[in-house]
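Case study: NUDIX domain-containing protein.
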Amino acid sequence: MSDRYSSIVDVLMLPYREDGRMPLLRRAEGRYAAGRLTVVGGHLEEGESPLDGAIREAEEELGIRIDPADAEFCGLFQFVAADGTRRLGTAWVTRRWAGTPANMEPEKHAELLWAEPGDPPDDCHPYTRGVLRHFVEGTLYAVIRAGGTA
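Here is what the predicted structure looks like once written out:
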């Protein structure tokens, strides 16, 4: 009998302004995906639901509070890195929140910028680029590969 497969579970929150832009965070040097732009998110923690985790990450990273009733599930993604490791990501979108988004973790993120999800900057991490593409297309499930194919 082989060991059961396990995967890191990412929880992603996509705040969506009226002008159609979403926040992206540039990862600080020395961190995972250093210098690349990523969506708001992190890892699921013990005892929380994916939605609770995504809401927590938005508060930690942007300083905004989101009512669970204002978040809508928008995707389940498996990211396959160049080395073959895999992550499973759950994504949520919201158009409503309390507070003003800001970079609340400058030790982790060098910059906060707002981008069109259908035309993300070239220096987005491949996972982020895939999540944004599938969000725009309305795809609820996809495998996103580091090489850009899905």
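For the exam, be able to explain this: Residues 8-145 form a domain with the Nucleoside Triphosphate Pyrophosphohydrolase fold (CATH 3.90.79.10).
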